[in-house]
Write the structure tokens for this entry.
Amino acid sequence: MKNNRPPDFDMHTHRTMIQKKLTIENNLGLHARAAAKLVSCASRYGCKIDIIHNQRRVDGKSILGVMTLGARKGQELDIIIEGEEEQAAIDAIETLIKNRFGEDN
């Protein structure tokens, strides 16, 4: 029998999700200001957003959680998004990270 589920189908919740690896590109890494911008961006969407770095998983809408990740330039974040507006949310987060959180360096 052929499996017609999308590749990102969660067998436990029977929902789809978006999972994407993004690399921190700004020189200062995921410091307080960058973390605040990431949380602010994530909080605009009704979906669940988790961020994983070095096997630590945090709520992407929690400033304390995101700041504890301590990701530096060149390190990857694994972003997992599930729910309404998930594509818009990942697009906005990816743009923010690729634009180095609006920092010049």
Remarks:
- The first helix runs from residue 32 to 43.
- The chain has one domain: 28-102.
- Residues 1-7 have pLDDT under 50 and may be disordered.
- The domain at 28-102 is CATH 3.30.1340.10 (Histidine-containing Protein; Chain: A;).
